[in-house]
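User: Can you predict the 3D structure for this chain?
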Amino acid sequence: MKVKRLYIEAGGKPIVLLNKDDADDLGVRALGRVRLRANGHERTAIVNTTSKVIEKGVVGVYEEVASRLNLEDGSVVDVRLSEPPRSIFFIREKLKGKKLTYSEIYEIVKDVVEGNLSEVEISAFVTALHTFGLDLDEATNLSIAMVEVGETLDLGDILVVDKHSIGGVPGDKTSLVAVPTVAAAGLTIPKTSSRAITSAAGTADRAEVLMPVSLDLDEIRSVVLKTGGCLVWGGALHLSPADDIFVQIEYPLAIDPLLLPSIMSKKKAVNAKMLVIDIPTGRGTKVKTIGEANALAKDFIELGRRLGIQTGCAVTYGEQPVGYAVGPALEAREALETLMGSNRAVDLVSKAANIAGVLFKMAGVGDAETALRLIRSGKSEKKFREIIAAQGGDPDVKPDDIPIGDKTYEVRAKRRGRVLWIDNGRLVEVARAAGAPKDKGAGILLNKKIGEHVEEGELLYTIYSESSVKLQNAIELVEARDFMGIGRSMDMLIQFIAEPPVYKRRFELER
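Assistant: Here is the predicted structure, written as structure tokens:
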């Protein structure tokens, strides 16, 4: 067939476009597969069909196929019907509730990464995992397979430690304080982080305010060997690449069956030997009770043992934001102020010191008090600035140098009392409506938190935005239903409902 190069990327998937008559002649339907041969190379591709855009006798090729086979407009390529990959049969087995072996799981993960499975087929696999669950054998095999089909960070004989949060709490800028603290103690912590998926800011979004985070493996290795730590975006790497594809499926389905292998595969990929998992717990988080947190911790610890990673879990308070700032720039500024000696965000200091302290105990170099001394002495700040410089940022940056949104709206108390509760999910909705995380300067700066006294008319929080339209969207959400409850300390009525409410469960998916 004659090639028509479409000059369109398909998100990493090998896709071709066939005229419907040609597809019928080949015996292939939409989402079926064909095998293409040209210039001494072969590639299996997923088929889309059309009756108008592509003429009979012509195959439209997306960039992933064109680059793999060195095709240009007018090239000739051999196109034949291809059998579906074996991994589809293994997915069918999981859909029946059967347990998969390592080789079967590896075949699925390899085909996911190589683009040999369609979104429908990957969705079926993720749905089967959600429906029937993963036992620890499958979680272990999936973690190992996800590592083996990607790249790994090799730092030689250096003891690598790491920390990771399962997410769910707004304003959780702990890594920006804990990572330089761990590195300041002489440990090595190559922190790869995610961008926000459903939150107002991911660690990579916060760090990017201060320095480039899209580093490749060689650049990360250089930064870590020089400073002992880094804060980079994992999506720029090829570490456990299947996870990024699975997330694209999990998000619209609002399910997260791959939480454990997703996190642990990425830690295995950086060759971490010691790891602390932060499990925020309470209303408004993924994990609602201490019992649930303990059960999850048990699985993390056992999975870590099977992967050769000494794992500890920190169950942390998650019923309100960490610190007072929510949104990339506001959080980066608060983290920097904290490292420079500000005592306002007491909870941020406590959480960062305790997370670092767990790693210090595991490595035999101290405890939470050791971490506090590093933070209060300025050694953590010095290390943070070293990391910023090594990653290409300004090591002399000051909090006031960080730009924030110039469109603001203040919310004041309508009554005297105390802050009784904060709805984390609603707060995130408001921050995202204001533009976070895409607009780095958007977010919310709290003036009051749970338990604090409030006078009528006193400032509760300020919404920041870079856009008047987005700010108005955020204001409308607040006016419809606020995320902060003010009342007397013994008030038992939280809310009066006169009409049947429309309940919308907020799905949290963070890595």
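The two ends are 44 Å apart (CA to CA). Residues 420 and 485 are 6 Å apart (CA to CA).
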